[in-house]
Amino acid sequence: MYDRKTWVVLILCGGLLAANVYYSSKNAEAERARQAALPKPAPTATVDPSAAPPSLSVEPPLPPTEEATVVLQNSEVIFTLTNIGGGIKHAELKNQHQVGSKTELVQINHFGGGPIGGLAGPDETLENLPYAYKAEESVDGKKAVYIAKLPSGLIAKKTFSLVESDKPGTPYLLDFDLQLENTAANAVNLNQWSIFLGEASPLYQSETPDQTGFFWHENGDMHFNAGTRFKGGWFSSDKSVIKNESASPVEFAGVTNQFFATVIRQKEPTVSNVWGKYSDEKLAENAKTVTSVRAGMPLPATSLAPSERKTVSYLVFVGPKHNSMLRQMDGHSQWGKGWGDVMQYGSWLQWVARPLNFLLNTYHGLLDGVAKKWSWGLAIILLTITVRIFIWPLHAKSTHTMKRMAKLQPKMAELKEKYPDDPNKLNTEMMGLYRKYGINPLGGCLPMFLQIPIFFGFYKMLQY
User: Fold this and answer.
1) Which CATH architecture has domain 32-344?
2) Rounded distance, CA 196 to CA 66, Å?
3) Banded model confidence at residue 314, pLDDT cuts 50, 70, 90
4) What is the pLDDT of residue 374?
5) How is the chain split into domains, by residue range?
6) Is 351 helix (H, G, I), strand (E, B) or coil?
7) What order of strands is seen across the sheet that includes strand 69-73?
8) Is the pLDDT of residue 100 over 90?
9) How far apart are CA 415 and CA 48, in angstroms?
10) 163-177 pLDDT tens trace
11) Is the distance from CB of 346 to CB of 354 less than 8 angstroms?
């Protein structure tokens, strides 16, 4: 099917890909600082939620310097919640390790500056007020309830609960209910506050920078702003904040890096101008800075009258960008649609990237038990060979046509000498020559052109 040179190049490229997968993890270990040890959960009490009083009450919150954390966890994720800001301080994925480490877990929202689910004010700055932890309404390891009175007179009560289901993606989900009550004398516009969507930054120094950013999903379409957009360019200046102008309800929004994402989904979508900000952070003490992106989604544009109460419900996802899992989550009606778009394959390349991703993970699953250390590298080699076999008819057609055209070069040279000053006659004679020998002039370049989307989709798939 291929000559010796083609096979040598193919095997060499596959070997280099496998070596890159292995050695990149070795070289990146020095680039990541050791993260803080996981705090122990605070003891909580379990009570019947129906016993809660009908109106919100606020206990004196702890001073900001006295942070207290609780942990909600399952088989895949350790969610650490904090009373400062009343939200998810960070999430650690039990089966995902930092690059170059066998013990250090991937931690999401590491540079957040505030908790996921926290409230940001009109200037997109996190308030990070101290919240009181409602132990009597919480369930140890499963549910956490926080409450605080905001300077505006609003009482905010937040409830975070693990999702109980056997559906794909469940371990990475939390139900988040925000209950608000206006104790002020005047009406309060809720839209001046935003829910903090969390922070995303590269996991290692060489991670593709334009894969880190914030996104939102509306009208079935995914919109993404990379962190590189904040830095400006030849025709634009640096931006401290980027806001979208949405005219349609936003189904969900979040932040992402190359491999992991945080998504907050409105259970009742509303029009929301999602915003994003950035900061420069260091993954290690002497490393170069990387761009960290954080984002927020405004509360519904509604006014809360004095003594009026309103509950806004969200679904929070903190986990890996695993194509198969996210696509299966689309099938669960309660969780909404569009989860698969978090992969960011694009509307055109997804038709190539998704099947290739399926094949890659299938090969990895088969090889993981045989050669765990090299399973991803070998899977890439097998996928490369599969792609080459798939496009071989196109490649063979193109090569065959070009070889036949090469044989006609002497005759074509004679025609050029015969009609040097008559291009119309020359073209007519050349087309007649092609017809005589059964050659399609596009037969050489068209098959090559058809292969381009396959290679672009292959590259896009390997990025995630």
Assistant:
1) Distorted Sandwich (2.70)
2) 22
3) very high
4) 82
5) 32-344, 392-462
6) helix
7) 69-73, 77-82, 87-97, 105-108
8) no
9) 94
10) 998 888 999 999 999
11) no
